[in-house]
Amino acid sequence: MGEGPQGMKLVTAIIKPFKLDDVREALAELGVHGLTVTEVRGFGRQKGQTEIYRGAEYTINFIAKIKIETVVPDERVPDIIHAITEAARTGRIGDGKIMVANVEQMVRIRTGETGEGAL
Amino acid sequence: MGEGPQGMKLVTAIIKPFKLDDVREALAELGVHGLTVTEVRGFGRQKGQTEIYRGAEYTINFIAKIKIETVVPDERVPDIIHAITEAARTGRIGDGKIMVANVEQMVRIRTGETGEGAL
Amino acid sequence: MGEGPQGMKLVTAIIKPFKLDDVREALAELGVHGLTVTEVRGFGRQKGQTEIYRGAEYTINFIAKIKIETVVPDERVPDIIHAITEAARTGRIGDGKIMVANVEQMVRIRTGETGEGAL
Amino acid sequence: MHAIDTGDTSWMLVSTALVLLMTIPGLALFYAGMVRRKNVLSTMIQSFGICCIVSIVWIVLGYSLAFTTGTAWIGDMSRFFLCGIADHIHQGADGAFTLGAGTSAETPMTIPESVYLMYQMTFAIITPALLTGAFAGRIRFSALCVFTILWSLLVYSPIAHWVWSPLGWVAGLGAVDFAGGTVVHINSGVAGLVCAIMIGRRYGLKRDDMSPHNLAYAIIGAALLWVGWFGFNAGSALGANGRAGMAMLTTQVAAAGGGVGWMLVEWWRHGKPTALGIVSGAVAGLVAVTPAAGFVLPGGALVIGLVAGGICFYSAAVLKNKLGYDDSLDAFGVHGVGGIVGALLTGVFAYGPLSATASNPAGVSGGWSQLLRQVEAVGVTIIWSVLLTALIFWVVDRLIGMRVSSEEEQMGLDLTQHGERLN
Amino acid sequence: MHAIDTGDTSWMLVSTALVLLMTIPGLALFYAGMVRRKNVLSTMIQSFGICCIVSIVWIVLGYSLAFTTGTAWIGDMSRFFLCGIADHIHQGADGAFTLGAGTSAETPMTIPESVYLMYQMTFAIITPALLTGAFAGRIRFSALCVFTILWSLLVYSPIAHWVWSPLGWVAGLGAVDFAGGTVVHINSGVAGLVCAIMIGRRYGLKRDDMSPHNLAYAIIGAALLWVGWFGFNAGSALGANGRAGMAMLTTQVAAAGGGVGWMLVEWWRHGKPTALGIVSGAVAGLVAVTPAAGFVLPGGALVIGLVAGGICFYSAAVLKNKLGYDDSLDAFGVHGVGGIVGALLTGVFAYGPLSATASNPAGVSGGWSQLLRQVEAVGVTIIWSVLLTALIFWVVDRLIGMRVSSEEEQMGLDLTQHGERLN
Amino acid sequence: MHAIDTGDTSWMLVSTALVLLMTIPGLALFYAGMVRRKNVLSTMIQSFGICCIVSIVWIVLGYSLAFTTGTAWIGDMSRFFLCGIADHIHQGADGAFTLGAGTSAETPMTIPESVYLMYQMTFAIITPALLTGAFAGRIRFSALCVFTILWSLLVYSPIAHWVWSPLGWVAGLGAVDFAGGTVVHINSGVAGLVCAIMIGRRYGLKRDDMSPHNLAYAIIGAALLWVGWFGFNAGSALGANGRAGMAMLTTQVAAAGGGVGWMLVEWWRHGKPTALGIVSGAVAGLVAVTPAAGFVLPGGALVIGLVAGGICFYSAAVLKNKLGYDDSLDAFGVHGVGGIVGALLTGVFAYGPLSATASNPAGVSGGWSQLLRQVEAVGVTIIWSVLLTALIFWVVDRLIGMRVSSEEEQMGLDLTQHGERLN
Ligand SMILES: Nc1ncnc2c1ncn2[C@@H]1O[C@H](COP(=O)(O)OP(=O)(O)O)[C@@H](O)[C@H]1O
Ligand SMILES: Nc1ncnc2c1ncn2[C@@H]1O[C@H](COP(=O)(O)OP(=O)(O)O)[C@@H](O)[C@H]1O
Ligand SMILES: Nc1ncnc2c1ncn2[C@@H]1O[C@H](COP(=O)(O)OP(=O)(O)O)[C@@H](O)[C@H]1O
Question: In this complex, is the C-beta atom of B55 within 8 Å of any C-beta atom belonging to chain E?
């Protein structure tokens, strides 16, 4: 277990929804072949706009965000963080976060390949 | 890599949907500044109610749950687990789980800050 | 912290949506008691079909996938990977991936049990 | 028995279909669009179920109580289970109906009784359906069924008799109500307020996100209400005549005025006009023009609409919050208040020649004295509606329990009352 | 040629619009709400596409086969491509149509032929559209198009001629069918059953979660079916007359009875009344009252509705499971069974004075002998429908293949048949 | 003043309701189904808001400009705020209206003026609502409100006067337009094209996934457009007569032809018929038959439908891409092009006896000379519409700004213009 020669990381980015296409393109340019996207709602420093329905105010605590997950080889992590940061930044509050975690094993279901070969 | 001085953990909680607001409030009181919420469906000991549409019975294997993810400094983990457990518990089957995993790096997209400064 | 005697892993599988029931059954047979399912969209080698609405072509970059997450004891991982691979495979591109990561702690909210007892 | 007019009958058949369209799917969608996801199906099926139940109640007893001659207070039982309804049918043809036949105030029509009673049935259906907006998201379905039966017989039918039967004592006061401002809207709105107060506020109000699940449904619903309202108002002319034409025109203008009125107030107060606000305003305008439709000119209708749009904004958005009751979908805020605004303004804008009839050649004209009569009619409706609704609520609450348990409420009515869910 | 009546013509124009509304969007929504997400668009476009296709088939040939004089078995070709339809038009005005003109059984009307044929077209459209519920989720779109053309010409038009042409041999048997219990509902229901059996069960039935994707659509659809049914049934009086009034009333009552009937049975059997159950019951009541609408009194209609609601619950919820065929959306369970219940009960509850005409002044009254005639008509319809449907299915299956591949079925028809998806 | 006909009045009241149904909720749904999730509510409320605004504009000034006698170029102000509309009302009854009364070309009707002006109001409403498809997803709501008022008064009312007033100069050219091919469809389509070009393309076009959010809405919307179109076209006969019957029939046939036409072309070109394609084709067929409905026979209508379905496929799917403007929902591609196809083919297929009147007993027959007149009318409409639309756009853009900011566009109009969202 742990980081063998073929160490892989899971890079997770929480971004503003309308930046999805920009980030996807930036990652594709870096040669990232795969990623998985989830619609999430975020709670953070950025406060939801207050919506008023027939005079009832609803503070929308949770704001629509997109979560991107991609597993990549260890050594690509800094580049990828850089690329996401560039593509997803608007400079305004709520731009989101990038997290990196360790992945111990990866398998491609179709072929059974494991490790980096599965990416 | 690994756990430096600014070790961070990803705490993931799967809870009953109507407990979301309670949990969010409990975490906010603990000073947790950010979290990300996903609508998921859970399969576990709690069995879905059998729904009957025109006499056809459908056992709903998957029950609506909410996944909360929050990255926090190492040392806050026990408090946070405690707070979530308190807020999300109904005492009945299906209350859900909390998992803790290691996060190696965290970046705030807006500023490029890393580590605990990015939380 | 870290991997004590009751080491647990988070196995995450990205699969084709219509394979969900097959995978759930395969895991249930292995005695996996719980899992959490998320609707995601994937970007990978499998390209979305081009959809044409009134002559405007939209390349659907993101294809509907299902993410299955289950936390299991260390020693079950190989079996589980095998079972998912078998159940989810169609042999065609886009069958998806399985990833394994470490989980440091697990709590059952209802009872407060931790570790493998929480599974 | 004189012959029917096919043109008038044609229009009344259509009007019946249009008013039914208002309840299902119109109101069902309007209300369902404003609730949370977990209550969408139950909200819709409340309107649909009421439609089924009241149809039966109406033919069994409700129509007899409301529209047979009887006394000034209540009809007799001569149409119990619609007995005698086919007496005049000969080779499929029917003669024209006369309301209050044989009395001094008889009102001859040009349509068969079957058509008249079907048309009135659709009014009896929509009134309790409107009421459900007040306790959306926390009512037990079984209790609603029982409540509806009692309410229809004890509240709706009597008031309909008082106001619309030519012998009715409220009609005798000289108040006018063209298409149901008091009988339908004030009545259901006020009853809704009573229910909202008695059932209590929704769990989590002011804390949880209770924003509407799908406002597209609400917009479609409001649009169908608007279209169907042509049957409600122009149909109340009981024929395809000049009064129907004017009633349709004033209905349209007041709806437009209501939408614009609410929109402008909201723009000014919150900086943005909401879609829900515009459609709510249009509905408020429609409500307010209901008692007035066949009696006022387009200019008056425009004023009625604008005023109703503005005032209902305040009652739904401001007053409710101040007073603290939880009239969830503003049954009172829109229908009660809008109905009152309309009933009173009818007394201001009524134009004699429009409302004139052979028996009342001067017609009803706006002015202080008419306004007073309108106030009386409104007051009477409110008093009866409040008292009887409270009584019925109390009884059903004792017997069955009106409100679901707190856990059922949190899980949603779809799952707990009907075992279903939106996928 | 005598003059048309504008009132009757007005009502028939409206009825035509109402029956069209039943198919699009009514039935399209009712069915689409019950399928899985991946089949929503394809289910809707099946109704819409059938509407387009049958409209053309009808003017080219279908109308001629069904409603020109011809023989007792089939019409002639005298209205091929509607030739001659404008012969009597003079300065935009048209005379009134006589069905079976020149024969001993001619039926004079008060509306132009253009209106009559358009009204009948909407019936020809809805019948194959109803059928699609039986093989929802697994039919190939191209095959459906071809199947529809053949079925409309070889099954629908002949049966319509037998039952509704004054010369038709089934009409000659003395059976009555006011608005299409046999021609439309039994016919499509039985044909649906044949198709469901021949095409086989859906992939994953009893294992996968096939719960309805969006019951809100189903409720809206049922509501529009209800409203549109006024055109179907009250329109079948062919004028704005007393019979139309009674037909609308009985339609409403039976729909309500059906909704309440299914609801009560479900409450008793499963502890909860479902929204889908209530609306299904209302549709069952509407189906059952279709052959009866202009012939029975409201009391009879209530019984018809209640019985249909209860029996269709059993056929859809119990019988289908027992017998094991996969009539996915209960085309047979609701329309076939409900139609049979209604056709038979028409023979029980028919009330002479309502159904009387100048040529048959006694009218049709319920009783054993009438019941027997109804059984005959039902039997004849079933036999023809089963045989011809099976033949057409077999031929099209050979030529094109009726069923999509298993993988296409799993991916969903939206994507595989139309290249689209709900977002 | 002669008496009204109740049958004709009944049909015109219904037609008014049907045309309103086309805009709300028909068009609202049709358009909303094609936009992205973030713009669903704003798209719907644009149609609804226009309905409110134009209703008021119409009674204040629009109707006077369009339909009072005035000159060949424009009406006078004699119905400003509808003054005098109730002058002939006596005990709720009204006399029949004569358009252009007192002139040599006066057109007597059998319905009250209130009904005629309400019916025409619904046409005035739908025309600017259709236009909104051209700039969907990027228009500022406040600007749209102002634009609509100006456009209705300066573009719609004048053209309506030219074409439909018996004194109008375009009518004098001998061109015919049964129900609004030029006034409504070409006009809105061409204006839409101008707006699409002036406002510019959507942000992210050709890069982002702009696939329709919910085509189920689009199908429901198209279905309601279809049903409502019966009021639009058959209502344009202004009575329940033979011409109305034929117009309904040709409308149905052309819609069906359009759906099949587009479907076949798509099947051939892309291998699959899409649901959106079929419904778009049906709408194209409806557009194209609009000017022709009361003048052509069913065979001609079928050709018009098929041709329109095919050509509109090319204009929406091919031409637009080639020329590069972003007419987002094909206001021009379907309504503009379909309208032109229909206006020209009316000149080909018009059948004398159908269009004959007392004052023109020969009627209008298809042929080169009529085709030329149609070309003239189309040309005139296009020129005026282009010039004035561009001017109004420019003025409002200066004053308020027609387009939202790029960030607002990306966040969506629901949130930024109305502060709401679909949950
Ligand atoms: N500690 C955290 N753990 C998990 N997700 C977080 C955390 N903090 C923020 N997020 C996610 O990132 C999003 C943006 O964070 P926010 O604090 O609003 O702004 P910023 O990224 O500019 O600091 C949030 O909406 C939430 O989804
Ligand atoms: N091993 C597991 N891995 C991932 N998620 C799990 C696991 N076990 C349970 N869950 C999630 O937790 C939810 C609750 O679990 P369940 O077994 O029903 O009840 P309890 O939490 O009371 O033990 C499930 O619906 C599922 O979403
Ligand atoms: N590196 C990755 N990180 C995260 N998810 C991935 C990655 N690569 C692929 N995926 C997910 O797996 C799915 C299938 O991958 P794809 O490359 O299309 O085919 P295959 O699994 O046959 O190699 C993708 O749609 C995506 O959701």
Answer: yes
